[in-house]
């Protein structure tokens, strides 16, 4: 049992270390290389590919290729394309072309995004085979994924890779390492059914039938609405913090010089919040836990708007602390809820569907909308001409707008999602 937990810990550490190498600092790299106006599309492409790739790979894992082998294949391809993006960025320097860099990056994330759901599916299957409780035993394992994310965030920052394409090289190499490691994990059997009666059953599309259940349909709709918030700070928090460097009184502050390390407080908070999930789920139930996540998003955005790198830096720190509740109480609890409410035969497909609604539709709408809001209040010619103070106030308006959206979603979820929780 301990050996199985350790093997899954290594898998989760590498899975999220791949993502942490570039996710929070890519916006700064793009801004410093003349691609500030494209930050939104770079982050939204993760959501666009999540519309179909996680669900598609989940179907393949359920029906044809064992999940651990498919996890390996996806990481091998994702790593190769990400290394290609890094090599291109380094070789071209300031002369990078949007089309080439974006194409290589897109191919990489197209194969990376399904691995999040696949890794969850592998973990749940392995834990089940070992006779362990997923609600109790998975969160302490998953916490090491966040540790891996933090480790590469710090490494990229301290090595000076934050504004360079070396962040892509680091990510790609870790992905290749995980591709090799995945082949050592226990076999995850496919669910082949020789008596399949329809194309829907043959392709494993039964997961979409979950929308016929009212409670699941409402759950997935609100998962999409809350998913809107997921990538906003990943894409724009770093450029926001480094933009204070244009103001003399803040230019030499820690959060400007080491924005990635400050943001990593969010992931440190995650490691603690993940461990609280079993207790909160059993005591309060999925509805109240997800409500906590939604109100945490309100604070996450609102505190960014109210803070500054000087006397108000505590608000940035507090924003990063509540991020753990905002992200984990939604993502991990939602994933566990889907696992418990679906048949094991469509486990991977259902996890892929959850990813599609959150990191697919939700994150795509959210990132593109956030880019439009920031272009309206921050990146427009009038604001830029008015100087750094006006840009700061533009950012504040944007953050308050995002907080208002999260508040509305929370209230609607409280009204419409019905769930009767029985305390254990």
**How many domains in all?**
1
Number of strand segments = 0
Provide the CATH architecture. Answer: Up-down Bundle
How much is the radius of gyration in Å?
A: 21 Å
- Percent of residues in helices: over 70%
> In terms of structural class, how would the helical and strand content be classed?
mainly alpha
| CATH class identity | Mainly Alpha
Indicate the overall shape. globular
Q: How are helices and strands ordered from N to C?
A: HHHHHHHHHHHHHHHHH
Number of helices, where a helix is a run of at least 4 consecutive DSSP H or I residues:
17
Largest sheet: none
Strand content: under 5%
CATH superfamily: MFS general substrate transporter like domains
Notes on the protein architecture:
The chain has 424 residues and is mainly α. It has one domain (2-187, 201-416): Up-down Bundle (Growth Hormone, Chain: A). The protein is 76% helix and 0% strand. It contains 17 helices and no strands. The protein is globular and about 60 Å long. The mean pLDDT is 88.
What labels describe this entry?
mainly alpha; single chain; Growth Hormone, Chain: A; 17 helices; 424 residues; globular
How are the secondary structure elements laid out?
Elements: H1 2-20, H2 26-32, H3 39-49, H4 53-63, H5 67-92, H6 98-129, H7 134-158, H8 166-182, H9 199-202, H10 214-227, H11 232-242, H12 254-257, H13 259-306, H14 313-341, H15 347-377, H16 381-386, H17 388-416
Question: TL;DR?
Answer:
The chain has 424 residues and is mainly α.
């Amino acid at each position: 049992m301990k050996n199985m937990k350790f093997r899954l810990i290594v898998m989760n550490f590498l899975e999220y270390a791949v993502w942490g190498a570039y996710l929070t600092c890519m916006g700064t790299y793009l801004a410093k290389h003349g691609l500030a106006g494209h930050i939104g599309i770079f982050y939204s492409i993760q959501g666009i590919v999540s519309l179909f790739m996680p669900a598609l790979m989940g179907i393949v894992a359920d029906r044809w290729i064992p999940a651990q082998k498919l996890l390996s294949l996806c990481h091998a391809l994702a790593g190769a394309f990400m290394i290609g993006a890094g090599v291109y960025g380094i070789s071209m320097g300031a002369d990078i072309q949007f089309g080439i860099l974006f194409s290589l990056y897109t191919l990489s994330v197209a194969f990376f995004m399904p691995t999040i759901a696949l890794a969850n599916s592998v973990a749940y299957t392995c834990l089940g085979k070992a006779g362990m409780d997923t609600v109790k035993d998975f969160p302490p394992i998953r916490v090491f994924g966040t540790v891996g994310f933090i480790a590469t965030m710090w490494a990229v920052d301290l090595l000076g890779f934050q504004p360079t394409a070396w962040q892509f090289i680091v990510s790609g190499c870790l992905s290749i390492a995980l591709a090799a490691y995945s082949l050592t994990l226990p076999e995850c059997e496919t669910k082949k059914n020789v008596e399949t009666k329809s194309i829907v059953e043959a392709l494993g599309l039964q997961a979409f039938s979950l929308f016929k259940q009212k409670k699941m349909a409402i759950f997935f709709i609100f998962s999409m609405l809350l998913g809107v918030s997921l990538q906003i700070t990943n894409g724009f928090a770093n450029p926001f913090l480094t933009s204070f460097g244009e103001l003399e009184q803040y230019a030499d502050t820690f959060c400007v010089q080491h924005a990635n390390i400050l943001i990593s407080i969010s992931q440190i908070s995650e490691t603690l919040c993940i461990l609280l999930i079993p207790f909160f789920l059993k005591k309060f139930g999925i509805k109240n836990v997800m409500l906590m996540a939604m109100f945490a998003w309100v604070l996450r955005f609102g505190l960014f708007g109210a803070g500054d790198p000087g006397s108000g830096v505590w608000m940035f720190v507090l924003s990063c602390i509540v991020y753990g509740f905002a992200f984990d109480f939604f993502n991990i609890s939602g994933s566990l809820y889907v696992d418990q409410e679906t048949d094991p035969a469509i486990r991977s497909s259902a996890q892929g569907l959850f990813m599609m609604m959150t990191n697919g539709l939700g994150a795509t709408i959210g990132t593109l909308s956030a880019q439009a809001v920031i272009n309206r209040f921050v990146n427009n010619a009038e604001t830029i001409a008015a100087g750094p103070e006006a840009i700061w106030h533009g950012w504040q308006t944007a953050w308050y707008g995002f907080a208002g959206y999260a508040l509305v979603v929370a209230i609607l979820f409280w009204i419409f999602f019905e769930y009767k929780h029985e305390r254990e």
